[in-house]
Structure formats: structure tokens, C-alpha cells
Amino acid sequence: MPMYTAPTPQNIPMSRSQRSIPAAITLIFVAPLVAEYLLGDLSIRLLAALIVLAPMYGGGALLIRELVRRTGRGWPSILLLGAAYALIEEAFTTQSLFNPDYLHLHMHFLSHAWIPFLHIGGWWTLFMLNLHTFWSISVSIALVEALFPSRAEQPWLGRIGDSVVAVLFLAGCIMGTVLGLKQNHFVAPAWQFLSAALVILLLIAVAFRLKPAEPGTGTGFVPSPWFTGTVTFILGFGVLIIPFVFNWSAVALMLAIDIVFLAPVFVLSRRAAWTPLHILSLAAGGALAYGTHAFLQPPVAGGSNLVVARIGNVIFLAAAVAVIVAGARRTVRFVSNPVSPPLT
Fold first, then answer.
1. How far is CA 259 from CA 40, 129, 172, 256, in A?
2. Is residue 111 part of a domain?
3. Please, which of 23, 168, 209, 211 could form a disulfide with 59 given CB 3.0 to 4.6 Å?
4. For the chain, percent helix, then strand, then coil, each to nearest 5?
């Protein structure tokens, strides 16, 4: 395979022809499908809920991607903004970080690794940060960018389109909040909302203080995408199966997995041999971990008929595999010939 040269504003000029509304629309729907259906939290019987979920999940993922790509930044900024998204959803829209009986599940999520002075659960907070940062946002973005590899590092919309997406995301958050309050009248204290808002602003500020992304130029060994994908699957599955009853030990295990994942990726991604196929492999490993784990639990909602739920799990996992395969084929074609016409 010839040495891959990452597209930059210098070697791929931005133009209207490079904008891709199909890619943007794809991400709007892939994000909620990954976040809720591939994970197995929602049964296929509730597929109509995409009408509400797509503006929030999809709008959030697309807005993050557009802001990062438009400013020339890279995956570290996406991860930080993904963490900010996690706090927006779980602190404000669902209030799950603060509600001791979220969704009336009687699971006592906050009691595990309880932090008294913050009135939050250490395990649940870290778990939500993992799910949304890595899966809802990053996996979704990486999968869709693999489907449109020639435009993966370019904005897909113009500034007007980005404004529309911002409004869509805001509307999704409002709809989610209203529905959540109808199901549960819990409202957290003002100081908890203020604390979450300050952390969100800090994450956003740091994300845009990072230097613009540059193509990897370092030398050194980079394992094959098959290896990086397999390791990501194992680590991702590990995050999902850590028993919350381990309390602070569960928090420590999750943090250890995060470090074991992020540290090598940070080093390897700075090397010239790191390609878009490696990025796709990370997303593929994460997506397959989600889809496989879905069979180990009943859906949180809409799962009264477990047979139907399992059929849905098969369908969503098969769809994820199809997206991964299609993305791999397009990415291989693009990496082999980066100056080929844009794939649509």
C-alpha cells in the first residue's frame, strides 16, 4: 500500500462541491442508532423514537464534527466535545447524573462509588462519559466518515447548514427534557446544574484551545487495523461488563481501560503509518462491542417481548457490520488513491 497522505486544506481545497448533505443526514441517524439501538437499550419496537432521538444525538454528533473539521482540529477535540455532550444530555436533558431513581428503574445507579459533596455516583458518571464520548459521538462520526473518506476531514455543510444543525440539536435537547420531565418530575438543585455547566464550558474551551490537527509524521511501528480493531473490541466490551457493584473498584477498572486505550492511540496516531483504516478499526471494534453486548441484557424500554428484542439486536448488529464493511472498502480505495473523485 502506498504511503497515505492525510488530506489537509493545503492539498484538498475547500469548495461547495465538497460539501455532502448525504453524509450529514447519514450521521444524524447513525448516531442515535448506535447510541440506543445497537447498544440494546431500546428495542426495535421503539424505532419510531428516532424522530425524537435523531435531533439530539445526531444533531449533537454532527455539530461537534462540523465545528472540529471547520477549525481544522482533530480527534482530541472531538473526544473533549463528546464529553461535553455527555454532560449536556445526562446532567440537563435526562438528569440521570443527579436523579437517584432514574427512569424509575430502582437500580440505585448513583449509590455506586457515591461522592457525597457532589451528590453524584462516581461509577455512573464515568460510565456515561464513556458511553457518550466514545460511542454515541466518536464511533458514530468515525463510521460515517469512513463511508465518505474523501471528505472525512472537511466540513460537510456550509455555515448556514451548521446553524440549522445547532437549532436541530437545541430542539432535540428541549424535546428530550420535556419528555423526561413528563416521565419523572425530578429536578436537580440549581447548584448541580451550575457545576455541570461550568465543566461543559471548560471542556469546550479546552477543545478549541488545542492546536489544529496535523498529519502524522513520526516513525515507528503501527499494528494492522485488524489488531487495533480487535483490541478495541476487547477493551470496549470490558467497559460494558464491569459490575457496578464493584463500586470504586469498577471506577478504577474503567479508568484503567480508558488509559490503556487512549495512550497507545495517542502515540500511534502521530506516526506516518497510521491511516484512516486504523480510525475505522477503532470505531468498528467499539460498534461490535456494543452490538454483541446487547444480547446480554433486556432492553431498558420496549423489551416486553424478548424474542422481538433479540431479532432487533441481530438486525442492528448486521447493519453495523454492513456499515463497517462498506466503510472499509471505500476507505481502502481512497487510501490507495487519495486524489480520486469524491465518493458519494
1. 26, 14, 32, 5
2. yes
3. 168
4. 70, 0, 30
- Secondary structure of residue 121 in the 3-state scheme: strand
In a domain, 217, yes or no: yes
**How many folded domains does the chain comprise?**
1
Question: Dihedrals φ, ψ of 133, to 5°?
Answer: -65, -50
CA atoms within 13 A on the CB side of 318: 6
Q: How far apart are CA 87 and CA 82, in angstroms?
A: 9
Cβ-based neighbours of 129, under 8 Å, separated by 6 or more: 83, 86, 87
DSSP bridge partners of 114:
121
What's the grid cell of residue 342? 469524491
**Is residue 276 a part of any domain in this protein?**
yes
pLDDT of the chain, 344 residues: tens digit per residue: 344 555 554 444 445 545 789 999 999 999 999 999 999 999 999 999 999 999 999 999 999 999 999 999 999 999 999 999 999 999 999 999 999 988 777 778 999 999 999 999 999 999 999 999 999 999 999 999 999 999 999 999 999 999 999 999 999 999 999 988 888 889 999 999 999 999 999 999 999 999 887 877 888 999 999 999 999 999 999 999 999 999 999 999 999 999 999 999 999 999 999 999 999 999 999 999 999 999 999 998 877 789 999 999 999 999 999 999 999 999 999 988 765 444 44
Long-range (24+ apart) CB contacts under 8 A made by 72-78 are: 72/9, 72/212, 72/213, 73/207, 73/208, 73/210, 73/211, 73/212, 73/213, 74/212, 74/213, 75/138, 75/213, 75/269, 75/279, 76/207, 76/210, 77/207, 77/208, 77/210, 78/137, 78/138, 78/141
Q: What's the N-to-C CA distance of the chain in angstroms?
A: 23
Q: Is 7 part of any domain?
A: no
- Angle between helix axes 140-147 and 59-70 (nearest 10 degrees) is 70
User: What is the extent of the structural domain holding 223?
Assistant: 16-336
Rounded to whole angstroms, the Cα distance separating 278 from 294 reads 25
Q: Rounded to the nearest 5 degrees, what angle is found at the Cα of 319, between the Cα atoms of 316 and 322? A: 155
